[in-house]
Please model this.
Amino acid sequence: MNSHRSQKLAFFCLLLATLLVVIPVGMVVVIIVQKGLPGISWEFLTDVPRKGMRAGGIYPAIIGTLYLVTGAIVFALPIGLLAAIYLSEYSRDNFLTRVIRLAIVNLSGVPSVVYGLFGLALFVVFFNFGASILAGSLTLGIMILPIVITTSREALESVPEAFREVSLSLGASKWQTIRHVVLPNAIPGILTGTILGLGRAAGETAPILFTVAAFYLPQLPSSIFDQAMALPYHLYVISTQVPNVDEKIRYGTAFVLLAMVLFMNLLATIIRSRLRKNKRW
Amino acid sequence: MVKFEIKDFSISFGAVRALNRVSFEIKANEILGIIGPSNSGKTTFLRSLNRLIDLTPHFKQEGTIHLEGEDLREIDVEEVRRRVGMVFALPLPLPLSIFDNVAYGVRMHGLTHKTRVAERVEESLKQAYLWDEVKDRLGESAFKLSGGQQQRLCIARTLAVEPEVILFDEPCSGLDPISTAKVEDAMVILKRNYTIVLVTNNVKQAARVSDRTAFLLGGDLIELDETDKIFTAPRDERTADYISGKFG
Model:
């Protein structure tokens, strides 16, 4: 086989592999849009579920998911960012910090159902929050902490060392340097990571299963100590636990969930590329 | 008057010795040129004078440097760096406007009064011969300036915090001859009010602007003398070889 032919063969294999990745993703989107879009109406988005979830809308589940995502980020962003600043700017490279870094990487590989059990044991039972938005948000927050920490740390570390040296050489303290030079230039990366974390939190079922999700709760929660419906769990319920739910409702719910997650990922991409364009070094 | 007194000063990184027991003095209001091939310890020495060397992991210092009689290690590191300013090899504006670049250090030291910050910015830009070129565009990004202008902006930024000493680390290595001449002119005039230490790879530059010149080689101080003497009648053969371009 001559080199020209083997090159063609290699191209073909690479193309095939790429298509194998893209096609299923594309099909998921196409099928969900095709079957879900007809079920979407103003009423579907703003009404509570009725007739044992076989009619009505998914408003409480949408709101519940928004609450959970907001709660998760309120918890995970400050802690994750502070930890990232510590790890990238202050900690020395020694055995302990290497173990911490490794632990954070490994945490993002922990199955989400394990986070769910952890949240059940710690927040629901030990802190006695009960199954509530608070417990669910904290559980989701812990699940996305590794994402927030890792992406924030990468963003901080991508700020050129020279900027730090300039600031320090002018007599600014280390904290001033972080506050005025490093952080402002790391914000695009931090935002991107945060939004990706949000998308992940919005779509997970297992962590909220034991900590917050209500099977059927046709009104809005009134405090963070209430249970709430959430989109991923609602989808699971109407697909497997309730017989004879119209396909339009099931795929409509999936469509809303998918749209929310894709919207967040899109937002992250837009912010990143816009701020990168403004990057001046 | 003596500005810096360097005594038996050594720096090593792990097993590598970058500076080897150098001792000399730097006088107030002089331009001291430091020349030498790469890996001679010039930049390491310069970064020791404002303790920027502290950022390098695993460095070890022996001996002392005194700034006006006070051990550098005994002075607050922020104060050391405010009193001993530095201009880096490549122009490195912060990603801020022209104005904010110059105002940065001043603000970090707690000056918030708007008109006084503005006065200090104007003064500093004038001292760095940049004011006339940028006075109508102070709000623009500093990255819009040319390389030579950026380097003078960096000088202005250093001047704004009113240091006593300015360290120049090969400040013209990335500049064209005309910009280089402008930076050199600025240095000669700045000498009246500041002590200047100039590390340069360009032997001719040291000959043009410095009052005294030190020659470093492999971490050792080979020779330090009036610039005229170094360039006309060096005592050490290695100095003669280096400035005549036999090695480098």
Remarks:
- The longest strand of chain A covers residues 49-50.
